[in-house]
Amino acid sequence: MSHAITLQTQEGTALLFANMTARESLGALFDYRIETLSRNVQVDLRGLLGTPATVTVTTPQGFVRYFNGMVAEAEQGAFVNIDNVRYATYVLRVVPRAWLLTQATDCRIFKNVSVPDIVRQMLSEFGFTDVSVRLSAHYPPREYCVQYRESSFAFISRLMEQEGIYYYFTHADGVHTMVLADALGAHAAVPGFESLPYVPPLERGSRMTASIAEWTMARGIRPTRVKLDDYDYLRPRASLLNNEPSSDSVEGYTGASLEGFDFPYGGPGFSQRVEDGQRYAQVRIDAQNVAKAVSSGTTDAVGMATGSLFRLADFPLSGANDEYLVTATHIRLVEPDYQAGGNEADEGEPPFVCSFHVIRGRQPYRSPQVTPRPVIHGLQTALVHGPADEDIAVDKYGRVQLQFFWNTPSRPHADQSCPVRVASQWAGKRWGAIQIPRVGQEVVVSFLEGDPDRPLIIGSVYNQEHMPPYPLPDERTKSGVVSRSLTGGPGDANELRFEDKKGEEELYLHAQRDLRVEAERDHSLTIDRDESGAIKRDRTHTIGRDDTLHVGRRLRIEAGEEIEFVTGLARITMNSTGQIQVTGSMLRSTATGTINLAAGAATSITAGASVSMTAGAAVSLTAGAAVAVNAAGAVAVTAGAALTLTATLGPAVLTGKPPLLA
């Protein structure tokens, strides 16, 4: 008695099942090739695409197994005659609905989302929500994760491979479910197939129970150790080196330690802790260990399914009788009544044959990290992003966010980048050069090792909306730096400009508001010709010690109202009315030649005590009219030799008392 096999599609029973080749493996999409027959020679191939198809296998013992998927391809083949009935052959390619992700390529940013959540979100966007999450480990959100010019399926595949997550599919009538797994607890035995005995083909005879006909074991050399290292600029001194040895060293028979080292293993979106690095190293060594010890075989057990567990029994090597996890299957299913559409060469082919690969159940499974990571070759440009009411949006590390042109707001799921560092000519510990790109500016972006998750701003460029500060090519001899006042207009800027036009060379410095110059020691200035300046309000200079001014020819100081010189108690004041006032505790005028005091009207000398005039030769007082000497007390005139008083009209001496001489 053979298996009963049926096929259900939207064509109902119009398509008769002939045979199927089914390939499944952990961490991969299943792929079924189903050959069918139909008396309808005009089956709508286009109408089959995207519709469900289910193959149902019922064993004589009553076990039912389903193979469900979506029709991805439909092909009409040759026409055949079976029992004088003409049939058209149709070949269907049936895949999981998750296969649709292989047909969509995108550029997209995810922020603060864990890998399992990214996977479920991506699948749901393609209409596939039959996902069972059976994960044991905790997967923290990734701060930043980029899908870049890769299929959505390649994107989630490489993420799962990095994290040590794999998947397989379970099937029911009309539905298939994607199971996310990372440990043995996500797997179970198929009821009725918990244990399968080893029965060689020559010993099988007429035995009807399911068994394993062939069993082979293989071992290979793989790395004995994985080391991963990385660098986190938020913790530049932190050591992220981790070292994970294999559970089964091969040093004994290779004479060497086979170490796999990689750098970097993370990125801005990874949680860069040492324990996380150890987990990533463990994932890699587990993936290597999967290929280190593999067993394979063939069976007629219809319950042999990828992702299931079973125990091998009755194998001659007792150490092999253990629990195993099925990692891959290749199933050939044939309807005896329509073997390959009536090809006599296929008569006698068993209705169900399964070739499989397994690993020990206690061996953690990890998918090999084979999905390539996208690489950005060369540079890109992007726009600095920020709030509409801000010109500068920056954090304490000088980082800004970007809007890449492949992820603009017009696209679905548009988002900005992570905070991106800005390269500088100098970057020291609280010293260096800094120019913060402003919101809306177009910047040049590099990617460390071409990794889309690791952007770095290395410069800025002009565009039609942000033109150069000087009109070009007319002013092509000008170069320099022009800033822009925050929320200011076109004329609000600081500027350092160089004019290199021959005969008009100029260095121009403009401060929009304040200009501060500080020299902690000396400041020297040399001007080969003239200096001119204009201060529209006040000027104040403070000199700690001396001030010396040397003028080769003439010094002119002019004030509109008043000039005042002050030192201690001494003061000289000159005002615009022509008055000059000299004030001090003592006034001394000394000349090696002559001192002339001239006044257009009068000269007054007043002393609170006395006035003394001394000359080495003579003192002469001359007046055009009269000289008056008045004293409140006495006037004494003393001569060392002779005293001569002469008057044209005659001398007159007047006193308040009688004259001393007649």
Q: Specify the biggest β-sheet.
A: 13 strands, mixed
Low-confidence stretches: 340-346
Give the name of the CATH architecture of the domain at 99-214 and 295-360. Answer: 3-Layer(bab) Sandwich
Total strands: 31
The fraction of residues assigned to DSSP E strands is 25-35%
**Roughly how much helix do the residues carry, as a percent range?**
under 10%
The rounded distance between the terminal residues' Cα atoms is: 184 Å
Our Rg estimate from Cα atoms comes to: 51 Å
Q: Per the principal axes of the C-alpha atoms, what is the gross shape?
A: rod-shaped
Provide the residue-averaged pLDDT: 88
Superfamily (CATH H level) name of the domain at 99-214 and 295-360: Baseplate protein-like domains
CATH topology (fold) name of the domain at 99-214 and 295-360? Phage tail protein beta-alpha-beta fold
Number of helical elements: 6
Instruction: Label the structural class.
Output: mainly beta
The first-level CATH class name of the domain at 99-214 and 295-360: Alpha Beta
